[in-house]
Amino acid sequence: MKYLLILSLLFIPNAYAWDGYDDNGHSIEIEQGNLVREGEDIEVYDYDDGEYKDVTVESITSYGGSVEIEAYDNDSGEYVTYEMDKY
Questions:
Q1: Separation of alpha carbons 54 and 31, rounded Å
Q2: Which of 24, 27, 36, 72 has its CB surrounded by the most CB atoms within 10 Å?
Q3: For residues 52 and 65, is the Cβ–Cβ distance under 8 A?
Q4: C-alpha to C-alpha distance for 71 and 87, rounded to whole angstroms
């Protein structure tokens, strides 16, 4: 069962845009086509800033109805946490 959950996390975010929030409460979206896996670089759109950000995924943790993504923001040099809705 755990194996199926891991596989679903690897493929669902790639098929559709994925909505959530960063640790500052900004509404963000990981757009279709981003491969959300540890060690991968992805592009995140921040609706509050109106900007795209390039981040490197450090870890992915699933719990309850959410997925937490820890990432390194390559532009600011800071770590960020995203709370994503689980589909």
A1: 12
A2: 36
A3: no
A4: 20
Pairwise CA distance, residues 28 & 49, whole Å: 10
Task: Report pTM.
Answer: 0.79
Give the start-end residues of each E strand in the chain: 18-22, 27-30, 41-46, 51-63, 66-73, 78-85
Distance CA 15, CA 32 (A): 6
- CA 59, CA 71: separation in Å to the nearest integer? 7
Handedness of CA 12, 14, 17, 18 (dihedral sign): positive
d(C-alpha 32, C-alpha 14), whole Å: 6
Q: Which two tokens stand for residue 39?
A: 């060690």
pLDDT tens digits along 41-67: 999 999 999 999 999 999 999 988 899
Looking at per-residue pLDDT, the higher value among 16 and 26 belongs to: 26
| Greatest distance between any 2 Cα atoms in the chain | 39
